[in-house]
Amino acid sequence: MEFGQNWLKPINERLATKFPDLLPQQLEECNALCKKVHQIAHRFIVENPIRSDTGIEFVDFYQFKQFIYKKYSWLSSANLQRLYSQSCYYAYK
Q: Taxonomically, which superkingdom (predicted)?
């Protein structure tokens, strides 16, 4: 979940390399789940702005973390941080 050459590309091939025992259907399920988590995270950031005297800010990381980990506790802390940063970036645009 980071910007770069693999940004928004399907993860199937990379997962297959790392976990060769996964079946094609399992790889596709993982890819679909990652896309779903992305969408949910982005929507949460967009739908929960914090209004202040200086304008609109994003929900803080702790609230984001609580929301995401309720359903997706398997996310690594590094991927969670990237997901938050990406979601804020796209909400800002």
A: Bacteria
What angle (nearest 5°) sits at the alpha carbon of residue 89, between those of residues 85 and 90?
120
Rounded to whole angstroms, the Cα distance separating 32 from 29 reads 5
Q: Around 65, how many Cα atoms within 13 Å sit in the side-chain half-sphere? A: 10
Distance between CA atoms of residues 20 and 34, nearest Å: 19
Residue with tokens 């969670």: 80
**pTM, whole model, 2 decimals?**
0.79
Rounded to the nearest 5°, which phi and psi values hold at 74? Answer: -80, -10
Return the pLDDT at 40: 97
Q: b/e string for 49-66 if b means 16 or more Cβ within 10 A? A: eeeeeeeeebbeeeebbe
Q: How far apart are CA 76 and CA 69, in angstroms?
A: 10
